[in-house]
């Protein structure tokens, strides 16, 4: 039993890193997903299905492929990455930021799904009422839509966080597997499984992954229930 | 001067609305069956929907003119909209709901203070509550208060009675009348319930299939067969303004007298609930079916109210006959065709209109 709690320095590093990556991923993803969710829930525009399809792509695309696309776009010699490097000296690939970006891309559709649903559940009648009372679109959004959709938005945050904790394929391609910098729990787990005799270490990481993913999903479910209850 | 004048045209699928309306200050009722375009009209006036063609002026300031590409947004129109279901923000207390719109109105535009609204609508004890815990009538009052505090020039009310229980329905009416008297604010009240609407106002617009089928005073409207036809299905009603003359405590009756003092009718006192003083003015409503017609005054009968008059018009609809009887004021009486034929009733016939005191409803 002791062995199961006896985390090595590398493992603690991986756990800490995972949480940092997951946290920043969820934080950065929130504003654009709230905005896009609102557009998708409330606005009708040409090419809406194409935008929806594009946003959902990371959900079905193999994460390894997503990572490869990121590498092609943002890698040091990539389509955009080249200029980032030449003009600003920014190298994204194989860094902590790359791990965050890889997580963001794969969590994006999940966050949008949760937030969009919660915005769709807000009765547009309340928004109409706010407008007749003198509020403009932004004021209506901040004072009415946002607070009413809040459980769904938190749920989106938690889902993005959880998805990031479990991210493997895109991260290993775009961010690599560098201990202390990009080696998150799944990557560390992958390493341990590769090495004969490291089953206990692998099991320790497995437990951490199961416990936190379960906690995050339960929390998200509770929020969804709250949203339904409110309605 | 008109408080609001509008010309509006819109096509929505199979439904088309094409109306020209001019509302005076005071309370105007908009009546029509379901699907006649009442809510669409409200939405167009408030800017929640846009017409294909239209022109709206409130107090002589231009709100909308499609020919000039002029279209003020909803939030800038200064029109208070009280929605059917209230639409109070569920995440805010009553107080926050009430104050929602006041931050967008300049102080000098405010027509009424927060405390006045709270007292007028008797909602002080609700201020800290959430909308969820309010009754239908309370929600409605808060919604009215919220609209008033956004400093509107005009108040629209969509079916203010329909979300309330029958017993509570008319309780909202005194509040509306009080607001109208105090603020002189023009109010448009939409309803498909004619008796409810009539207890609030006699100034009506009739809407059917997206067009205006008549407008004016109710008693002028019922004389037109087309208007009568629209209103018939919703329950016609006599609404008569009276003044309290005296309380006959001994016999449990209150004597009411009509405005030009030509006729006196008696009402059982308990109906008035001790709420009226001598000299108070009130509206009494009476269903056309609750009035009987006789050719002679009947002395040995328990019915106290017997008003003498002359038939001015007879309108036959299916198996009913509607007689308009001038008894000093107009009464509409509904009888069967058989009775009409048997009694040989015709325009000009002198008759007595009989009704029990119990059949009278008092609207304050």
Query: What is the oligomer described by this structure?
Result: heterodimer
CATH topology of chain A: MetI-like fold
How would you characterize the largest beta sheet of chain A? none
Can you write the helix and strand succession of chain A as a string? HHHHHHHHHHH
How large, in whole angstroms, is the Cα Rg of chain A? 20 Å
Terminal Cα separation of chain A, in Å? Answer: 46 Å
Number of strands of chain A: 0
What would you say this structure looks like, in words?
The complex is a heterodimer of chains A (231) and B (364). Chain A is globular and about 70 Å long. Chain A is mostly helical. Chain A has one domain: MetI-like fold. Chain A has helices at residues 2-5, 9-42, 48-60, 63-74, 81-88, 96-120, 124-132, 137-165, 169-174, 185-194, 199-230. With 364 residues, chain B is an alpha+beta fold. Chain B has helices spanning 38-46, 94-99, 114-120, 136-148, 166-169, 172-183, 194-198, 218-221, 225-232, 337-343, and strands at residues 4-12, 15-23, 27-31, 53-58, 61-65, 70-71, 79-82, 154-158, 187-191, 203-208, 211-217, 238-248, 253-258, 264-268, 281-286, 292-294, 305-317, 320-326, 330-336, 350-355, 361-363. In chain B, the strands form 4 sheets. Chain B has a 6-stranded mixed β-sheet, with helices on both faces. In chain B, a hairpin with a 2-residue loop joins β17 (305-317) and β18 (320-326). Chain B starts with a strand and ends with a strand.
């Amino acid at each position: 039993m002791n062995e199961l709690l006896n985390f090595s320095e590398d493992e603690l590093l991986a756990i800490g890193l995972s949480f940092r990556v997951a946290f920043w991923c969820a934080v950065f993803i929130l504003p654009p997903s709230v905005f896009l969710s609102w557009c998708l829930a409330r606005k009708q525009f040409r090419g809406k299905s194409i935008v929806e399809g594009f946003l959902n792509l990371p959900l079905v695309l193999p994460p390894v492929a997503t990572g490869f696309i990121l590498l092609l776009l943002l890698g040091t010699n990539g389509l955009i990455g080249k200029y980032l490097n030449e003009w600003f000296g920014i190298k994204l690939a194989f860094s902590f930021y790359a791990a965050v970006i890889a997580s963001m891309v794969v969590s994006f559709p999940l966050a949008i799904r949760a937030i969009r649903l919660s915005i769709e559940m807000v009765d547009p009648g309340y928004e109409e009422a706010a407008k007749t009372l003198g509020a403009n679109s932004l004021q209506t959004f901040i004072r009415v839509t946002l607070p009413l959709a809040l459980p769904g938005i938190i749920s989106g945050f938690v889902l993005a966080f959880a998805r990031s904790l479990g991210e493997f394929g895109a991260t290993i391609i775009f961010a690599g597997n560098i201990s202390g910098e990009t080696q998150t729990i799944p990557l560390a787990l992958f390493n341990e499984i590769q090495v004969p005799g490291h089953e206990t270490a692998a099991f320790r990481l497995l437990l951490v992954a199961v416990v936190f993913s379960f906690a995050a999903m339960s929390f998200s479910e509770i929020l969804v229930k709250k949203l339904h209850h409110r309605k | 001067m008109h408080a609001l004048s509008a010309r509006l045209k819109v096509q929505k699928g199979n439904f088309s609305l094409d109306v020209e309306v001019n509302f005076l200050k005071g309370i105007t009722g908009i009546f029509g069956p379901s699907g006649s375009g009442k809510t669409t009209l409200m939405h167009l006036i408030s800017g929640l929907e846009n017409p294909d063609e239209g022109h709206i002026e409130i107090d002589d300031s231009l709100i909308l003119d499609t020919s000039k590409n002029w279209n003020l947004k909803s939030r800038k129109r200064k029109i208070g909209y009280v929605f059917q279901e209230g639409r109070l923000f569920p995440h805010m207390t009553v107080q926050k709901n009430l104050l929602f719109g006041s931050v967008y109105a300049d102080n000098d535009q405010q027509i009424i203070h927060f405390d006045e609204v709270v007292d007028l609508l008797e909602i002080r004890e609700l201020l800290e509550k959430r909308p969820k815990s309010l009754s239908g009538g309370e929600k409605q009052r808060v919604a009215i208060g919220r609209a008033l505090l956004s400093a509107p020039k005009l108040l629209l009310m969509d079916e203010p009675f329909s979300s309330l229980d029958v017993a509570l329905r008319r309780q909202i009416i005194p509040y509306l009348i009080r607001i109208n008297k105090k603020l002189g604010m023009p109010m448009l009240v939409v309803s498909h319930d004619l008796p409810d609407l009539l207890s609030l106002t006699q100034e009506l617009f009739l809407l059917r299939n997206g067009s205006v089928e008549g407008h004016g005073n109710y008693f002028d409207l019922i004389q037109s067969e087309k208007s009568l036809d629209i209103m018939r299905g919703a329950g016609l009603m006599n609404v008569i303004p009276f003044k309290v003359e005296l309380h006959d405590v001994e016999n449990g009756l209150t004597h009411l007298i009509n405005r030009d003092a030509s006729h006196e009718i008696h009402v059982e006192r308990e109906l008035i609930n001790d709420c009226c003083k001598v000299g108070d003015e009130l509206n009494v409503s009476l269903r056309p079916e609750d009035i009987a017609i006789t050719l002679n005054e009947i002395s040995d009968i328990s019915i106290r109210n017997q008003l003498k008059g002359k038939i001015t018009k007879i309108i036959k609809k299916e198996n009913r006959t509607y007689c308009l009887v001038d008894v000093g004021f107009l009464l509409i009486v509904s009888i069967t065709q058989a009775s009409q034929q048997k009694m040989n009733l015709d325009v000009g016939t002198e008759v007595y209109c009989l009704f029990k005191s119990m059949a009278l409803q008092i609207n304050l």
